[in-house]
Amino acid sequence: MKLMGLMAKALQTEAKKVEEMMDDGMQSVRITYYPPCPRPELVVGITPHSDASGITILNQVNGVDGLKIVKDGAWLPLTFLPHALVVNVGDILEVLSNGLYKSVEHSVAVNSEKERIAVGFFFNPRFDAEVGPATDIVGPENPPKFKRKGMEQYVKDYFAMKMEGRSNLEHMKIDNDGCRQ
Ligand SMILES: O=C(O)CCC(=O)C(=O)O
Ligand SMILES: [Fe+2]
């Protein structure tokens, strides 16, 4: 996966290793339909969450806004450029970069008049890869902030959890003693 490889390169970790880990990786698609509602404030839409993926590419098929992200601690509604794709940093990229990239918390509100359709493509490592901070960027100067686990276990744990804020990432965190928080 070229994009993940380039993002890894920016971290000065071995891009090739990251590309290999993503090669033949688990990819999934979620198509979400949001019917219009005259009282959007009463409708859940998609609850706040970060994506468990490495990266997510979002296509807002019919150009109806609704996506909000957390920026500097506050919710910020986004306006898409026509025909643009949105690329979200997911939890796995935050873990891999040992916290340098931040997975974005986001949610979606429904529109009062128009239906909204979005297609999300989630790009993940292969099942036999390990999810954890890149070994060549951690050390005494940069102690690992996240646990390591096999991708298969990561996926199982993720699906056993409620999609809520950044809870998946919190679950991966280690404190300074190396214990789970
Ligand atoms: O509808 C959207 O734009 C985003 C959907 C989303 O966050 C997801 O499927 O994880
Ligand atoms: Fe999402």
TrEMBL record:
Signal peptide: none annotated. Coiled coil: none annotated. Residues 25-125 form the Fe2OG dioxygenase domain. This is Fe2OG dioxygenase domain-containing protein. Keywords: Iron, Metal-binding, Vitamin C. InterPro entries: IPNS-like_FE2OG_OXY, IPNS-like_sf, Oxoglu/Fe-dep_dioxygenase_dom, Plant_2OG-oxidoreductases. It comes from the Eukaryota. The lineage of its organism: Eukaryota, Viridiplantae, Streptophyta, Embryophyta, Tracheophyta. SUPFAM superfamilies: Clavaminate synthase-like. GO terms for molecular function: L-ascorbic acid binding; metal ion binding.
